[in-house]
């Protein structure tokens, strides 16, 4: 109740303010979640990005209807999965007789994780994604089975952990030992795959904000992942999106969790350095 | 050179309105994608030897899985078909701006006219990075892919484009 009356108040104020400003400025919707968390959906591009001045969250390209789903957690269908993960967090699994909570206390302890993922793992000597960290704990610390990358518990847990960073700026490291992986991802971003010979950059760097047939092209940012995708009625990972985008160029695509997509995830994440983590965001 | 003769024959028949009826597309000698000669982007010879059909070309323009040209181009004459893209320039007036040979070259392999163009090459079979089996996401089954459009479909599209006058 409280949240509803607050929202009405806020929109009345917003209308009054916009009335006086709309003549001056192009309408730029702002993303404030639960009337509380202010999200950075547009900001200056990170220094490594030579071809863009401004980076924009995918949210800014969606229709008002789709945008609205993400503005209140009661309307966000991704939150159901986050709730399921909360149960899993506390459920003992595996031969060691532990749950995530046994060692990590509440999920809040994961604040900041999504903002820095994927990241270099010194022990493994490789860039690791969230899925790899989660499975490492399951296999080696809980003696439980690894979850599949696309399995529901993995998607849900990824969303729960990511939510703890919501509103923080994406800040993945691209130098030091992660640099060569980042370079690989960058090379992929500019490779024209498949019979249609299209690169990520063709669509998401040179043509963002243009329509391609019925689709309004965004910058292909992944600050919102895992995303709740209305079309799939489920959470999806960035790798799932990469897979589909490459397939649509009539190419042989890569699989989720492949070294190629880990590199691409690092590079694409870094293109969003400075945008707020939005997970779980909502897209069509 | 047998080729040339057949083509000439087919063209003559087609001109008489008999080509399609008697020969079908199988017999009308086609230029394979590898045989097409680009002269500064222009292709003066017909790819199929059979004149293009405007109505069939219109269909190629708007159909996903065929040309789907309006995915990237706006065309006022196709206004009744929803969702035109904005990636390339409008094709209004293309039939005035370009000659038939230029249009054939652009559609067959746009990269011969526009360096590094984002426009797909519709009459090309190799030289791809990770070519796939259509939209399955799986690897292509053959070293050479079927071109995105057939020789006749390209002739049809060119015939359609030539009707776009401002």
Number-wise, the strands of chain B total 0
Any idea what the shape of chain B is?
Answer: globular
Helix content of chain B: 25-40%
Largest interface: A-B, 25 and 29 residues
CATH architecture of the largest domain in chain B: Orthogonal Bundle
Describe the protein in words:
The complex is a heterodimer of chains A (284) and B (166). By secondary structure, chain A is α+β, with helices and mostly antiparallel strands. In chain A, strands 10-9-11 form a three-stranded mixed sheet. A two-stranded antiparallel sheet of chain A has the order 1-2. Chain A has a two-stranded antiparallel sheet with strand order 3-4. In chain A, helix 3 crosses helix 7 and helix 8 crosses helix 11. The radius of gyration of chain A is 19 Å and the shape is globular. Chain A starts with a helix and ends with a strand. The N terminus of chain A is likely disordered. With 166 residues, chain B is mostly helical. Chain B has two domains: 29 residues; 133 residues, Cytochrome c-like domain (Cytochrome Bc1 Complex, Chain D, domain 2, Orthogonal Bundle), CATH 1.10.760. In chain B, helix 1 runs antiparallel to helix 2, helix 3 crosses helix 6 and helix 5 crosses helix 6. Chain B is globular and about 40 Å long. The relative contact order of chain B is 0.19. The N terminus of chain B is likely disordered. At the A-B interface, strand 7 and helix 10 of A face loops of B.
């Amino acid at each position: 109740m409280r949240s509803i009356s607050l929202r009405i108040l806020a929109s009345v104020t917003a209308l009054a303010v916009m009335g006086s400003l709309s003549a001056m400025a192009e309408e730029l919707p702002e993303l404030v979640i639960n009337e509380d968390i202010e999200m950075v959906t547009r900001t200056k591009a990170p220094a490594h990005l030579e071809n863009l001045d401004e980076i924009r969250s995918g949210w800014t390209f969606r229709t008002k209807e789709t945008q609205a789903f993400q503005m209140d957690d009661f309307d966000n269908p991704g939150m159901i999965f986050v709730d399921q993960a909360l149960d899993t967090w506390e459920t003992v699994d595996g031969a060691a007789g532990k749950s995530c909570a046994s060692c990590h206390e509440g999920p809040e302890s994961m604040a900041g994780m999504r903002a820095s993922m994927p990241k270099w793992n010194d022990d493994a000597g490789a860039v690791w994604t969230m899925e790899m960290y989660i499975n490492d704990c399951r296999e080696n610390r809980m003696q439980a089975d690894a979850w599949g990358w696309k399995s529901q518990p993995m998607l849900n847990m990824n969303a729960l952990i990511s939510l703890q960073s919501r509103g923080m700026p994406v800040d993945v490291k691209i130098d030091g030992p992660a640099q060569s992986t980042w370079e690989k991802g960058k090379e992929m971003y500019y490779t024209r795959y498949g019979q249609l010979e299209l690169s990520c950059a063709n669509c998401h760097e040179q043509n963002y904000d243009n329509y391609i047939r019925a689709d309004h092209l965004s910058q292909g940012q992944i600050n919102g992942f895992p995303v709740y995708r209305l079309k799939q009625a489920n959470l999806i990972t960035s790798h799932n999106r990469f897979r589909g985008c490459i397939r649509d160029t009539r190419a042989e695509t890569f699989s989720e969790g492949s070294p190629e997509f880990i590199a691409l995830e690092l590079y694409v994440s870094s293109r969003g350095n400075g945008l707020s983590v939005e997970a779980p965001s909502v897209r069509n | 050179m047998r080729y040339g003769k057949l083509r000439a024959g087919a063209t003559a028949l087609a001109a008489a309105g008999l080509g399609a009826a008697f020969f079908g597309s199988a017999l009308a000698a086609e230029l394979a994608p590898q045989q097409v000669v680009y002269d500064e982007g222009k292709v003066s010879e017909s790819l199929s030897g059979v004149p293009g059909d405007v109505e069939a070309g219109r269909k190629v323009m708007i159909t996903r899985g065929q040309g789907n040209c309006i995915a990237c181009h706006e065309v006022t004459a196709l206004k009744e078909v929803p969702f035109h893209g904005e990636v390339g320039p409008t094709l209004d007036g293309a039939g005035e701006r370009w000659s038939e040979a230029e249009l054939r070259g652009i559609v067959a392999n746009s990269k011969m006219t526009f360096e590094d163009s984002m426009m797909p090459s519709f009459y090309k079979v190799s030289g791809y990075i990770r070519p796939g089996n259509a939209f399955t996401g799986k690897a292509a089954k053959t070293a050479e892919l079927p071109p995105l459009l057939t020789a006749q479909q390209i002739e049809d599209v060119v015939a359609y484009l030539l009707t776009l006058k401002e």
